[in-house]
Design goal:
This protein is of the alpha+beta class. 16% of the residues lie in helices and 38% in strands. The strands form four sheets. It has a six-stranded antiparallel beta barrel with strand order 2-3-7-6-5-8. Strands 9-10-15-14 form a four-stranded antiparallel sheet, covered by helices on one side. Strands 11-12-13 form a three-stranded antiparallel sheet. α1 (96-115) crosses α2.
């Protein structure tokens, strides 16, 4: 398994690690700061640097499909990985600008969930935009939602994560807002994200530590995707 350092500290930009394997999925490390695609959030990009200063560009990060608990760091196409063998020590460093955009957008989607109290049946969080699909029929107003986001950002609510047991989640099923992505089971505990006084729900993504760090975010588009789905797209102003 890969130790997921980003779960506890989203500010951590680099770490030293040891290569476990190199296969068709990518480079597997024993520990990493790279967040893998999941929960609607895009994977991190960045660099792996070897002791001789050779650098390998990582263009995506994914959960390994054949190694449970392992994370695959995907190198740029055509990269020569012959120098990487099990036991090789590397320094893993993420693209800080990309990570910060993910953190700001992901936290903003939690504010949006507080403003639109309906189940979520789809989401996407990238460095360029974020979107949430709400299971609802009522119309939504771009200006009203943008003003609501600005208010919650300006109120500077602390943002923190904690862990609860699976039994605690079962006793509070309303914490789960997503219809399409369920919290992972089998580990005995569930990570929840709390925006103090605003939102509380299971989430494994990376977030800012205070809503003020989100900055100005606006609703750029509202679409009627189906009779019971309204899509809200966010962008940075």
């Amino acid at each position: 398994m890969t130790e997921e350092l980003f779960r506890e500290d989203a500010d951590l930009l680099e770490c030293t690690a040891t290569v476990i394997a190199v296969d068709d999925a990518g480079i597997v490390l024993d520990r990493t700061v790279f967040y893998p695609l999941g929960g609607g959030q895009a994977g991190d990009a960045g660099m792996l640097t070897l002791p001789d200063a050779t650098s390998i560009a990582i263009v995506d990060t994914r959960k390994h499909k054949e190694r449970p608990g392992a994370i695959a760091h995907v190198a740029a196409a055509g990269t020569d990985l012959s120098m990487l063998v099990a036991g090789t020590r590397v320094t893993a460093r993420i693209d800080a600008t990309r990570r910060q955009a993910h953190r700001r957008f992901h936290t903003a989607t939690h504010l949006l969930c507080a403003l639109v109290p309906h189940p979520v049946d789809g989401c996407s969080i990238t460095a360029e935009y974020a979107r949430l699909d709400f299971h609802m029929t009522e119309p939504l107003d771009k200006e009203v939602l943008t003003e609501g986001l600005a208010r919650l950002v300006g109120e500077a609510h602390p943002v923190r994560h904690r862990w609860i047991s699976e039994e605690e989640l079962d006793a509070n099923p309303s914490l789960v807002r997503s219809m399409s992505v369920q919290p992972p089971r089998g580990l005995g505990r569930i990570r929840v994200l709390e925006v103090e006084g605003v939102d509380l729900q299971p989430c494994g993504g990376t977030h800012v530590t205070n809503t003020a760090e989100i900055g100005r975010v606006v609703v750029t588009k509202i679409e009627k995707k189906s009779a019971r789905t309204r899509r809200v797209v966010l962008g940075f102003a």
